[in-house]
Amino acid sequence: AQSVAQPEDQVNVAEGNPLTVKCTYSVSGNPYLFWYVQYPNRGLQFLLKYITGDNLVKGSYGFEAEFNKSQTSFHLKKPSALVSDSALYFCAVRDQRSNDYKLSFGAGTTVTVRA
Amino acid sequence: DGGITQSPKYLFRKEGQNVTLSCEQNLNHDAMYWYRQDPGQGLRLIYYSQIVNDFQKGDIAEGYSVSREKKESFPLTVTSAQKNPTAFYLCASSSGTGPRETQYFGPGTRLLVL
Asked: Which of A3, A43, A69, B107 is the most buried (most CB within 10 A)?
């Protein structure tokens, strides 16, 4: 079985401050991990993914995420948040041993960046 | 959203009516998926298809049906058996060439019950 937890429903930060969105996962084997962003009434946009290798993954729009196997975490980060980063963020996981291409998503974290 | 289109953007269903949501992709992807999104619950998988003429149930398939007659198309029918169909429906596709592929999403269809 595979699952994802996003422990914070909402994250509020001031523009220019660092932004962190937390994600923890559970898989039987090793994970593939993904972050997506969703703007109101839109589909999900892919930000970045971890496959293997370097634990720090860089993605779109200045976002990055750090894979920590011992803590089973994959937190999304941005050094300096923008008002335009306000959106709903989803973490997703897939067990590398799975062969059915199914992703398991977290419940989402709403990010609000105030000017 | 590029490469995956969903129509209509809004859809209204009357009691006892079946409705069909369209999903088309021009990415030459083998795999396609349907998700349902409800507030505070994230995305839940309804059906997925890894190849033409084949599909599998996801976690919440009851009250839904799909077909995959063409590689680029994966329509979803919400039947009258689905008692709570109001939600945002998202279609996705992936290359399906291996376990590390990324799923790309369409813009979604919001289904409302009259």
From this structure: A43
For B62-104, the pLDDT digits (tens) are 999 999 999 999 999 999 888 899 999 999 999 875 667 899 9
Q: Using an 8 Å Cβ cutoff, are A90 and A111 in contact?
A: no
Report the C-alpha gap between B11 and A105 in whole angstroms: 25
Residue with tokens 């953007």: B9
Name residues 16-45 of chain B within 8 A of A (Cβ). Answer: 31, 40-43, 45
- Alpha carbon distance A55, A57 (integer Å): 6
Query: What are the C-alpha distances in Å from A54 to residues A28, A44, A47, A50, B84?
Result: 21, 25, 17, 8, 44
Structure tokens at B72: 């680029």
Q: Are B21 and B11 in contact (CB under 8 A)?
A: yes
Which residues have C-beta within 8 Å of that of residue A110, sequence separation ≥ 6? Answer: A9, A10, A11, A87, A88, A89
Residue A50, H or E segment: strand A44-50
Q: Which two tokens stand for residue B65?
A: 């049906």
Inter-chain touch B102–A41, beta carbons under 8 Å: no
Return the residue matching tokens 């813009």.
B107
Closest CA to B27 of B73, B60, B63: B73
A49 in B contact zone (CB under 8 Å):
yes
